Amino acid sequence: MSRIGKMPIEIPNGVSVDIKDNEIKVKGPKGELNQKIIPNVNIGQEDSKIVVSVNSPQNKEQASLWGLYRSLVFNMVKGVTDGFEKKLEISGVGYKATVTGSNLVLNVGFSHPVEIPIPAEIEVKVEKNDIIVTGADKQVVGEVAAKIRKVRPVEPYKLKGIKYSYEQITKKAGKAAKGAGDAG
Protein backbone atom coordinates (compact mmCIF):
# COMPACT_ATOMS: atom_id res chain seq x y z
CA MET A 1 0.00 0.00 0.00
CA SER A 2 1.40 3.39 -0.94
CA ARG A 3 1.39 5.93 1.88
CA ILE A 4 1.78 8.82 -0.54
CA GLY A 5 -0.60 7.43 -3.16
CA LYS A 6 -3.59 7.04 -0.87
CA MET A 7 -3.58 10.69 0.31
CA PRO A 8 -6.23 12.79 -1.48
CA ILE A 9 -5.25 16.04 -3.20
CA GLU A 10 -7.19 19.20 -2.30
CA ILE A 11 -8.35 21.28 -5.26
CA PRO A 12 -7.97 24.99 -4.36
CA ASN A 13 -10.42 27.69 -5.47
CA GLY A 14 -9.80 28.90 -9.03
CA VAL A 15 -8.44 25.55 -10.22
CA SER A 16 -10.40 23.33 -12.61
CA VAL A 17 -9.63 19.64 -13.16
CA ASP A 18 -10.73 17.68 -16.22
CA ILE A 19 -10.20 13.88 -16.27
CA LYS A 20 -11.04 11.92 -19.44
CA ASP A 21 -9.56 9.39 -21.86
CA ASN A 22 -6.46 8.50 -19.80
CA GLU A 23 -5.46 12.15 -19.41
CA ILE A 24 -5.80 14.73 -16.65
CA LYS A 25 -5.85 18.48 -17.33
CA VAL A 26 -5.39 21.01 -14.54
CA LYS A 27 -6.09 24.68 -15.24
CA GLY A 28 -5.42 27.55 -12.84
CA PRO A 29 -4.24 31.15 -12.58
CA LYS A 30 -0.59 30.31 -13.50
CA GLY A 31 -1.42 28.21 -16.56
CA GLU A 32 -2.62 24.84 -17.77
CA LEU A 33 -0.89 21.46 -17.44
CA ASN A 34 -1.83 17.99 -18.66
CA GLN A 35 -0.54 14.49 -17.93
CA LYS A 36 -1.19 11.14 -19.64
CA ILE A 37 -2.27 8.33 -17.31
CA ILE A 38 -1.21 4.72 -17.84
CA PRO A 39 -3.93 2.03 -17.82
CA ASN A 40 -3.36 0.54 -14.33
CA VAL A 41 -3.66 3.93 -12.56
CA ASN A 42 -7.12 5.37 -11.85
CA ILE A 43 -7.66 9.06 -11.10
CA GLY A 44 -11.03 10.30 -9.93
CA GLN A 45 -12.57 13.45 -8.50
CA GLU A 46 -14.68 13.45 -5.33
CA ASP A 47 -16.12 16.83 -4.26
CA SER A 48 -13.09 19.16 -4.11
CA LYS A 49 -10.47 16.38 -3.94
CA ILE A 50 -8.56 14.27 -6.45
CA VAL A 51 -8.16 10.60 -5.52
CA VAL A 52 -5.52 8.35 -7.11
CA SER A 53 -5.77 4.54 -6.98
CA VAL A 54 -4.43 1.47 -8.77
CA ASN A 55 -6.06 -1.79 -9.87
CA SER A 56 -3.83 -4.04 -7.73
CA PRO A 57 -2.22 -2.33 -4.69
CA GLN A 58 -0.27 -5.49 -3.74
CA ASN A 59 1.65 -5.42 -7.03
CA LYS A 60 4.97 -3.61 -6.35
CA GLU A 61 5.12 -1.97 -9.77
CA GLN A 62 1.58 -0.64 -9.51
CA ALA A 63 2.18 0.53 -5.93
CA SER A 64 5.20 2.57 -7.06
CA LEU A 65 3.19 4.06 -9.94
CA TRP A 66 0.44 4.92 -7.45
CA GLY A 67 2.77 7.19 -5.47
CA LEU A 68 4.37 8.55 -8.63
CA TYR A 69 1.10 9.64 -10.23
CA ARG A 70 -0.18 11.11 -6.97
CA SER A 71 3.00 13.23 -6.78
CA LEU A 72 2.72 14.24 -10.44
CA VAL A 73 -0.90 15.37 -10.02
CA PHE A 74 -0.08 17.17 -6.75
CA ASN A 75 2.77 19.04 -8.49
CA MET A 76 0.41 19.98 -11.33
CA VAL A 77 -2.13 21.45 -8.89
CA LYS A 78 0.60 23.29 -6.95
CA GLY A 79 2.18 24.54 -10.17
CA VAL A 80 -0.98 26.12 -11.59
CA THR A 81 -1.77 27.83 -8.25
CA ASP A 82 1.63 28.89 -6.81
CA GLY A 83 4.19 27.95 -9.45
CA PHE A 84 7.72 26.68 -8.91
CA GLU A 85 10.99 28.60 -8.61
CA LYS A 86 14.69 27.74 -8.79
CA LYS A 87 17.31 30.31 -7.87
CA LEU A 88 20.88 30.16 -9.17
CA GLU A 89 23.86 32.32 -8.18
CA ILE A 90 26.74 33.44 -10.39
CA SER A 91 30.11 34.09 -8.77
CA GLY A 92 33.30 35.15 -10.50
CA VAL A 93 35.00 38.32 -11.68
CA GLY A 94 33.26 39.54 -14.84
CA TYR A 95 30.65 36.78 -14.78
CA LYS A 96 27.19 38.07 -15.65
CA ALA A 97 23.88 37.06 -17.18
CA THR A 98 21.26 38.95 -19.20
CA VAL A 99 17.94 38.07 -20.76
CA THR A 100 17.61 39.16 -24.39
CA GLY A 101 14.36 38.25 -26.10
CA SER A 102 13.73 34.55 -25.54
CA ASN A 103 17.37 33.72 -24.70
CA LEU A 104 19.47 33.84 -21.55
CA VAL A 105 22.96 35.12 -22.38
CA LEU A 106 25.73 34.02 -19.99
CA ASN A 107 29.19 35.59 -19.91
CA VAL A 108 31.03 33.16 -17.66
CA GLY A 109 34.70 33.17 -18.61
CA PHE A 110 34.51 31.66 -22.08
CA SER A 111 35.79 33.47 -25.18
CA HIS A 112 32.17 33.85 -26.31
CA PRO A 113 28.81 34.43 -24.60
CA VAL A 114 26.67 31.30 -24.14
CA GLU A 115 23.02 31.58 -25.22
CA ILE A 116 20.40 29.31 -23.68
CA PRO A 117 16.90 29.33 -25.23
CA ILE A 118 14.09 29.90 -22.71
CA PRO A 119 10.93 27.78 -23.26
CA ALA A 120 7.69 29.75 -23.69
CA GLU A 121 6.14 28.45 -20.44
CA ILE A 122 9.18 29.48 -18.33
CA GLU A 123 10.11 32.94 -17.05
CA VAL A 124 13.74 33.83 -16.31
CA LYS A 125 14.73 36.96 -14.37
CA VAL A 126 18.23 38.22 -13.63
CA GLU A 127 18.83 40.30 -10.50
CA LYS A 128 22.47 41.30 -9.90
CA ASN A 129 24.23 37.91 -9.60
CA ASP A 130 21.06 35.81 -9.24
CA ILE A 131 19.15 33.98 -11.98
CA ILE A 132 15.55 33.15 -11.01
CA VAL A 133 13.73 30.49 -13.08
CA THR A 134 9.94 30.31 -12.52
CA GLY A 135 7.08 28.42 -14.12
CA ALA A 136 4.07 26.18 -13.56
CA ASP A 137 5.68 22.87 -14.61
CA LYS A 138 8.12 21.62 -11.96
CA GLN A 139 9.93 19.32 -14.38
CA VAL A 140 10.59 22.02 -16.99
CA VAL A 141 11.73 24.53 -14.34
CA GLY A 142 14.22 21.96 -13.01
CA GLU A 143 15.48 21.08 -16.48
CA VAL A 144 16.08 24.72 -17.45
CA ALA A 145 17.85 25.43 -14.14
CA ALA A 146 20.04 22.34 -14.57
CA LYS A 147 20.91 23.37 -18.14
CA ILE A 148 21.96 26.85 -16.92
CA ARG A 149 24.08 25.38 -14.09
CA LYS A 150 25.73 22.90 -16.46
CA VAL A 151 27.25 25.74 -18.54
CA ARG A 152 29.78 26.54 -15.79
CA PRO A 153 29.47 24.50 -12.56
CA VAL A 154 31.32 25.95 -9.57
CA GLU A 155 34.91 24.77 -9.39
CA PRO A 156 36.14 24.03 -5.84
CA TYR A 157 39.41 25.98 -5.87
CA LYS A 158 38.29 29.56 -6.55
CA LEU A 159 34.52 28.96 -6.19
CA LYS A 160 33.81 30.56 -9.56
CA GLY A 161 30.79 29.45 -11.58
CA ILE A 162 27.02 28.92 -11.37
CA LYS A 163 25.39 27.14 -8.43
CA TYR A 164 21.97 26.71 -6.86
CA SER A 165 21.31 29.19 -4.04
CA TYR A 166 20.97 26.39 -1.46
CA GLU A 167 24.07 24.53 -2.61
CA GLN A 168 27.03 24.36 -0.20
CA ILE A 169 30.44 24.00 -1.83
CA THR A 170 33.56 23.57 0.28
CA LYS A 171 36.69 25.27 -0.94
CA LYS A 172 39.70 23.03 -1.56
CA ALA A 173 43.24 24.05 -0.74
CA GLY A 174 45.56 24.49 -3.69
CA LYS A 175 48.93 22.80 -4.07
CA ALA A 176 51.24 23.36 -1.14
CA ALA A 177 54.23 25.54 -2.01
CA LYS A 178 57.62 23.87 -1.69
CA GLY A 179 60.10 25.49 0.68
CA ALA A 180 63.59 26.63 -0.43
CA GLY A 181 65.38 23.94 1.61
CA ASP A 182 63.11 21.11 0.41
CA ALA A 183 64.82 20.58 -2.93
CA GLY A 184 66.28 17.19 -3.31
Low-confidence stretches: none
Task: Report mean pLDDT, rounded to a whole number.
Answer: 92
What's the CATH superfamily of the largest domain, by name?
Ribosomal protein L6
Shape descriptor reads elongated
Radius of gyration: 23 Å
Strand arrangement within the widest β-sheet reads 11-12-7-13
For the largest beta-sheet, the strand count, sense and barrel status come to:
4 strands, antiparallel
- Helix content class: 10-25%
Sketch the topology as an H/E string, one letter per element: EEEEEEHEEEEEEHE
Any overview of this molecule?
This protein is α+β, with helices and mostly antiparallel strands and 184 residues long. The chain has two domains: 9-81, Outer Surface Protein A, domain 3 (Alpha-Beta Complex), CATH 3.90.930; 84-164, Outer Surface Protein A, domain 3, CATH 3.90.930. The protein contains two helices and 13 strands; from the N terminus they run ββββββαββββββαβ. The protein has helices at residues 60-81, 138-151, and strands at residues 9-10, 16-20, 23-28, 31-36, 41-46, 49-54, 84-91, 96-100, 103-107, 114-117, 122-127, 130-135, 161-164. Strands 11-12-7-13 form a four-stranded antiparallel beta sheet, with helices on one face. A hairpin with a 2-residue loop joins strand 8 and strand 9. The chain starts with 8 loop residues before the first strand and ends in a 20-residue tail after the last strand. The model has no long low-confidence stretch (mean pLDDT 92).
